Input
Amino acid sequence: SQQGEEDPQALSIQEGENATMNCSYKTSINNLQWYRQNSGRGLVHLILIRSNEREKHSGRLRVTLDTSKKSSSLLITASRAADTASYFCAIPMNRDDKIIFGKGTRLHILP
Amino acid sequence: EAGVAQSPRYKIIEKRQSVAFWCNPISGHATLYWYQQILGQGPKLLIQFQNNGVVDDSQLPKDRFSAERLKGVDSTLKIQPAKLEDSAVYLCASSLGARARNLSYNSPLHFGNGTRLTVT
Output
């Protein structure tokens, strides 16, 4: 079964708007990762947030983590056409680096 | 640094045939993963290697799938015989590995572009 569940499954917004997607998980973690996948390509690591961090920024990306609610959110500000992709949260299952992915959020940026 | 290399990029076979995929991870990466991604879904972990040893293969259909990682570097994933439901993208990923780096957090994964398998 999937450890992380992203919400929404699909999202369409106008270029320039902000996009927010969420990830919920079930077990205790020491970090959570977000990845992007463009059509026909492999996944690309975006950002890693540790369990002792509440918020992290990277360019136009902002990730939050609430360990009490077992949830994380990814915010993309000032969206661009190139942000059209699927976004996945990844949950490490243990220190042996077993990484489990959710089903993803398919983001479509409208021109 | 060179990325994760996978071949072939595409493969079309008939059911009951055999197929093999190859992966060359980033140099120095101790951990190697094979994921299966069915269209519209997230990647599903099939097998994880730490150097040349298997860490997790709980989701690998062992009656038809096999994988090996020779000398802790390159890896091959084989399906024999293939079924229609094996049609998917097979992704290889590698990472430095938390244990290898004695870290308390996991290392990011680096993915290849995958092999798209179509079974007819």
